Amino acid sequence: MKLDRKDILKALETITIAGEGKNMVESGAIANVITFGDEVVVDLVLHTPAMHIKKRAEDDIKKTILELVSPEAKIKINSKVEVPDKPEVKGKAIPGIKNIIGVASGKGGVGKSTVTANLAVSLAKMGFSVGILDADIYGPSMPIMFDVESEKPVSILVDGKSKIKPVESYEVKILSIGFFTAPSQAVIWRGPMASKALNQMIFDADWGELDFMLIDLPPGTGDVHLSIVQSLPITGVVIVSTPQAVALADAKKGVSMFMSEAINVPVLGIIENMAYFTPEELPENKYYIFGKEGARNLAEDLDVPFLGEVPIVQSIREAGDYGRPAAMQTGSIIETVFEEITRNVVQEVVSRNESLPATEAVKITTMAGCSAVNKK
Fold first, then answer.
1. 22 and which of 26, 121, 261, 265 could share a cystine (Cβ 3.0–4.6 Å)?
2. Beta bridge partners of 277
């Protein structure tokens, strides 16, 4: 049996690289095809370092040739990654802060702030220096979740300038509009006022050296999100959703906003919160109250990483209400769940930064010996 190069190219015109509109041949992803009898060598050129896209492309090529050309073909794929120059990262970098991660959701009530708090303490337990900017101006939660409701940030002099010193709890530095208003007071501000307050908490604060700043964004897509991406070079965003259709529809809009050409902020992945319920007396049982694997399927459809799932556990809610994030419960299933999700987030940040020019402010230089990455 002798394979024909033209037949192989014609077959490969039926498939695309994930996230690209043109087929593999038209887009130039197939750099060359060489045949030797029943053997075929395909040179594949990718423009993203994401491993899941590379594996999917290779699997699609093999499957297509076997199905459309010959089931007996012996296929070898030589893959090469050529990352184009990245556009200038938006915003002004904050000296000393290596990575800025936005935590967002399409709608409220999906547990975004709870996930943010537990990611922060998990990162701190792994040895990273961490800060949280509570950008949910109209519903700030971090003072409650870290048991610092009564705390007030103080003003300090840094290089002759007055700076806000963040409140610290469980080795996490925190700033929130909740520190500057009474607990019963509603924040009734228009967009420009909210944006100005955020800029003050970002640039007029003494954050010091941070490996990660997590930004707890408000639900939806609006003024605050635009202010943040225009003010700061965001390393990437994490989307939080529950499994049901109404939450997934809004999460999809959130992903679309950040991946749009105008904003162009990388989506590091999706976390599924309230994924299932397991009763304490029946630890082997899983009840999918809000639907099964909805966020996992959405991540696959949008071709973004799935970072993990968080079950419905009473202690997560209790821990948030009592001001001690549940990920601090040593030896618990929740500690394990958030450790795994946090490792995945760190790994995606590492992968993201490997594709950025070395001159960018978001470059990581402290990951090499990190146990979080080595465990992956």
1. 26
2. 287, 312
CA nearest neighbour of 169 among 136, 121, 204: 121
Contacts 24+ apart (CB under 8 A), 199-203: 199/227, 199/231, 200/164, 201/133, 201/164, 201/175, 201/176, 201/177, 202/94, 202/133, 202/231, 202/232, 203/92, 203/94, 203/231
Q: Identify the burial level of 118 via C-beta atoms within 10 angstroms of its C-beta, where 0-12 means exposed, 13-18 middle and 19 or more buried.
A: buried
Residues 43-71 pLDDT 10s: 988 877 667 778 888 898 999 989 998 88
Exposure string (b/e) for 26-50, b if CB count within 10 Å is 16 or more? eeebbeebebeeeebebebbbbbeb
The type of residue at 12 is: L
| Contact partners, residue 277, CB within 8 Å, separation at least 6 | 286, 287, 289, 311, 312
Q: Counting every residue, how long is the chain? A: 376
Q: Residue 192 has what pLDDT?
A: 63
Beta bridge partners of 236: 101
Specify the pTM.
0.67
- pLDDT (0 to 100) of residue 300: 83
Backbone angles phi, psi at 282, to 5 degrees: -130, 70
Give the model's confidence band at 343: pLDDT under 50 very low, under 70 low, under 90 confident, else very high: very high
